[in-house]
Amino acid sequence: MHPFAISIPVCRSVLSQPSRSVLWRASSCQLRVALQTRVRHDGRDGKPTNPSVPRKSPAIASARKVYFPPKTEDQGTPTTEAYAINENHQQREGPTPRVQFLRPAVFVLSLSTGMYCLCAYLEARKQVKEAARGYVPRPQFFYPAAEPQDVIAQTWKDLKPIGKLTIGSIAILGAVHLSKYVAYSVWANMWHIPAMNRNYQFLSHIFVHSGPPHLLFNMYAFYQFVPQLGDAPLFEGNANHMAAFLLSAGVLAGYAQHLIGVFKRGASFTRYALTPAGGASGALFAAFGAYCFQFPDRQVGIILLPFYFDAIQFLPFVMAFDIWGLTFGFKSLNLGHGAHLGGACIGIAYSAFDGNNKIWKPLVRFFRNRLEKKRSS
Question: What CATH number should be reported for the domain holding residue 224?
Answer without folding.
Answer: 1.20.1540.10
